Amino acid sequence: MTQESTRTLVTFLLDRTGSMEAIRDDTIGGFNAYLDGLKGNGEAKIDFTLIQFDSVSLDKICVAVPVAQVAKLTRETYQPRASTPLIDAAVKTINAVEASLLSAPAAKVVICIQTDGQENSSTEHTWGELNALVKEKSAKGWQFNFMGVGIDAYDQGARMGIAPAATMAYDHSDPAAVRAAFAGSAESTRRYVVGAAPTTAYAPEEKAAAGDRFGDVVRKVKRGLKRAIVDDINL
Fold first, then answer.
1. Minimal CA–CA distance to 145: which of 44, 35, 11?
2. H helix intervals, 104-213
3. HSE-up of 49 (CA within 13 Å, CB side)?
């Protein structure tokens, strides 16, 4: 089999803004659990890219490195600062991934975006541009996940064009929930990579373990009034 028929490229865009300082150690531990989850037992060929963003810079920590060789985060390699140019960071990351595929094709592409705050400092791109770009790549089979910590991730994820099923709002006040959120993201990606799932959508129990209280609201709304009435009469 050719390289492009087996290779998966996973890119993680990690918020490094100042507000993440309050959960710095939990984020480091969670991200390292994410790496362990992706590594699994080595059954999937994953090349991994980590990009950290804030309003000072967008930094490539590692680019297309075999996941087994990726170094874990430490307090030295993760130092929160500045504000949140989420739109600019996401657009630039997606464009960089697309450019990289010209020289190193991949059968599967996964991009996971994590933040604890609302967009507040982008200057080069708009929500509309990002939404159109995510939808364009999703139509080509790319998988997008959005992890929002301490916020209604579903509102912001929708603005980006990321499906509710691939969105998680996790609890910043509970270290176990933070770790579960990252571990669940790794597992959803691993399932997709090995062919056990058609997408990187989160399982309900993964959202529950992450303390996702917004996801329940979304699911109830999507069920609609008719389903709610049926539930009420099934005594």
1. 11
2. 127-139, 153-160, 175-193, 204-209
3. 23
Instruction: Write out the E strands in 46-132.
Output: 46-53, 58-66, 108-115
- DSSP sequence for 62-75: EEEEEGGGPPPP-T
Specify burial of residue 141 (Cβ count, 10 A radius: 0-12, 13-18, 19+).
exposed
The answer to whether the pTM exceeds 0.85 is: yes
First-to-final CA distance of the chain: 55
pLDDT tens-place values along the chain, 235 residues long: 445 568 999 999 999 999 999 999 999 999 999 999 999 888 888 999 999 999 999 999 999 999 999 999 999 999 999 999 999 999 999 999 999 999 999 999 999 999 998 899 999 999 999 999 999 999 999 999 999 999 999 999 999 999 999 999 999 999 999 999 999 999 999 999 999 999 999 999 999 999 999 986 445 544 443 444 444 444 3
Say how far apart CA 212 and CA 171 lie, in whole Å.
7
Q: Which two tokens stand for residue 133?
A: 């770009």
Q: Apex CA 206: angle with CA 84 and CA 60, to 5°? A: 35
Query: To which residue do tokens 């301490």 refer?
Result: 150
| Closest by CA position to 67, among listed 8, 27, 14, 2 | 8
